């Protein structure tokens, strides 16, 4: 009789597995379409003509519609989830900085990397720690189109396993 298969569940990293200074490159990249931009923009009730009106946008400084910067921010953070925080996060604590140094356009491909810039144990939540991430998004030419610093609360592995078995 064959042995039971070993099951490996995809997860992010625990607090104790994360090292300051490490840079994670996330895959795959995400090519952004006009449909993505229009859907996200209308879903979030952002009626900015720079995202929705191609004729008007063509007459503005960039000469074409821009991808909604909140879509770009959501995508660079989202690209990190499977590798870093899937199932190990307690909470997203906030953003310190958010920058969009260059625009993202329809048809551009967004590539994301995350650097671990700080970590410390929580003083009020035993078994958990605060990780500070620097998420960076680049287009297919390597231009930085988005950057943010984000703090999250993650489980320590032993504490999470104790909680799960309780």
UniProtKB/TrEMBL annotation:
**Domain MaoC-like stretches:** 21-122
User: What Gene3D superfamilies does the annotation carry?
Assistant: Hotdog Thioesterase (3.10.129.10)
CDD domains in the cross-refs: FkbR2 (cd03451)
Q: Short name of one Pfam family for this protein?
A: MaoC_dehydratas
Q: Which PANTHER family match?
A: BETA-METHYLMALYL-COA DEHYDRATASE (PTHR43664:SF1), MONOAMINE OXIDASE-RELATED (PTHR43664)
The text of the family note is: Belongs to the enoyl-CoA hydratase/isomerase family.
Descriptive protein name? Acyl dehydratase
């Amino acid at each position: 009789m064959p042995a039971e298969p070993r099951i490996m569940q995809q997860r992010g990293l625990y607090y104790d597995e994360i090292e300051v200074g490490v840079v994670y490159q996330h895959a795959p990249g995400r090519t952004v379409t006009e449909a993505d931009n229009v859907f996200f923009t209308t879903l979030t009730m952002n009626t900015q003509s720079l995202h929705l009106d191609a004729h008007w946008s063509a007459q503005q400084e960039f000469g074409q519609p821009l991808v909604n910067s909140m879509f770009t921010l959501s995508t660079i953070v989202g690209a990190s989830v499977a590798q870093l925080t899937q199932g190990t996060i307690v909470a997203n604590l906030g953003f310190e900085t958010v920058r969009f140094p260059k625009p993202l356009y329809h048809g551009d491909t967004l590539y994301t990397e995350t650097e671990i810039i700080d970590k410390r144990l929580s003083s009020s939540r035993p078994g958990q720690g605060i990780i500070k991430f620097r998420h960076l998004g680049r287009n297919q030419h390597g231009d930085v189109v988005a950057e943010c610093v984000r703090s999250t609360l993650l489980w320590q592995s032993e504490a999470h396993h104790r909680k799960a078995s309780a």
